[in-house]
Design goal:
The complex is a heterodimer. By secondary structure, chain A is α/β, with parallel strands linked by helices. Helices cover 36% and strands 19% of the residues of chain A. Chain A has one domain: Udp-n-acetylmuramoylalanyl-d-glutamate--2,6- Diaminopimelate Ligase, Chain: A, domain 1. The longest helix of chain A has 10 residues, at 81-90. Chain A is globular, with a radius of gyration of 13 Å. Chain B has 8 helices and 10 strands. Classes of the chains: A alpha/beta, B alpha/beta. Chain A binds chain B through residues 35-41, 54-58, 61-62, 80, 82, and chain B through 53, 115-117, 138, 143-148, 150, 152.
């Protein structure tokens, strides 16, 4: 049974930055972490979860391109309103946490979410 | 690299236009401008700004007042940490002869809290030219950090590092092929001078450089790459 975005959001107490939609039907298949967008473009997998402290608007295009399940933006990095609008427009889900990448990844791993397949 | 030696080396390399772009800093710019007085060499005031995404950007201006305005913004957005000379080296401020004036206390190596987009807007507002530096480098290059040039911003040129030819850069990073590309060498030492950007312009101003980058009004530019 794949984890759903709903379980992850609740257990990690994540804040939703984009429009509210039903997360119970969104499966999350793997996790990937990098703050270099070029690495993400070649490293993350479709339906995967991307953990980053990068909040530049280019993250939306990367997530849309790869059809990622969602982005978790860490350390309370705040994307600007235009980036949030763009994410809503492209159907990209952005979540936020005050925790650093390492903490978020550790908790995801405990929930059973492993790295991308290589 | 003290001001008189920078001027001598530039002249020896046939350079007649250069920009001083210290990392998040600008206090040595007036000294170089003064050292170049009386020579056939124009020094543009500038800065290499490091954005919060750790992207290096060259910010070029016509006059010191514009640069000072940017410096004020940068100072407010740099963490208040003192330089540790043992780890990061000296941050000297010198006069036009190269004589020591004082040390810059605030550590300059950090990222500012300005996002790439915010930095672009600030520099544009001040009438400057905003050129992402060594975009192909894994450390502090735009392509690695941001993946591609943010399409919403009207970026007028990109700079590629000395280690690659224009053709190689475009082949490796097709996302940059639509942008005017320059190659400045990221000169940190006197032996680093390349002098390979050639601008055909009426006078050494930001407005003229912008026209040359767009190749309009009989202005043009080319990189005479050594690679």
């Amino acid at each position: 049974m794949a984890l759903t975005l709903n379980e992850i959001t609740e257990k990690l107490n994540l804040t939703l930055l984009t429009e509210k939609i039903d997360f119970t039907e969104i499966p999350v298949k793997s996790g990937y972490c990098s703050d270099l967008l070029s690495c993400v473009m070649t490293g993350a997998e479709p339906e995967g979860l991307w953990i980053t402290l990068m909040s530049h608007s280019n993250i939306v295009a990367v997530a849309a391109l790869l059809d990622l399940a969602a982005i978790i933006i860490t350390e309370d990095a705040q994307p600007d309103q235009e980036t949030i609008d763009k994410a809503n427009d492209k159907g990209v889900i952005m979540l936020s946490s005050p925790e650093p990448n390492y903490e978020i990844i550790g908790r995801l791993w405990e929930l059973g979410l492993k790295a991308t397949k290589h | 690299m003290i001001p008189p030696l920078i001027v001598q080396k530039a002249l020896a390399c046939g350079v007649n236009l250069l920009a001083i772009t210290d990392h998040n800093a600008s206090e040595n710019v007036p000294a170089v401008i003064k050292a170049a007085q009386g020579y056939d060499l124009t020094v543009l005031p500038g800065m290499e700004l490091q954005t919060e995404e750790e992207v290096h950007v060259l910010c070029l201006f016509d006059n010191i007042d514009q640069l000072n305005c940017l410096q004020e913004i940068v100072d407010k957005n740099l963490p208040d940490i003192k330089n540790n000379v043992e780890y990061f080296g000296e941050q000297f401020i010198v006069d036009h002869t190269g004589e020591f004036i004082r040390r810059k206390e605030q550590l300059l190596i950090n990222s500012t809290n300005l996002s790439f987009d915010e930095a672009f807007l600030e520099v544009s507002k001040l009438g400057g030219l905003f050129i992402p530096a060594h975009v192909n480098r894994q450390a502090f290059g735009l392509i690695y950090h941001l993946g591609f040039v943010p399409p919403e911003l009207d970026i007028e040129a990109l700079e590629i590092s000395r280690h690659i030819s224009l053709e190689e850069a475009i082949k490796k990073y097709p996302q940059i092929h639509n942008y005017p590309l320059i190659q400045s060498g990221d000169v940190h030492y006197l032996d680093d001078f390349l002098g390979v950007n050639q601008f055909i312009i009426e006078e050494p101003t930001i407005a003229e450089l912008k026209m040359a980058l767009q190749s309009v009004e009989k202005r043009s530019f080319q990189v005479i790459s050594r690679n």
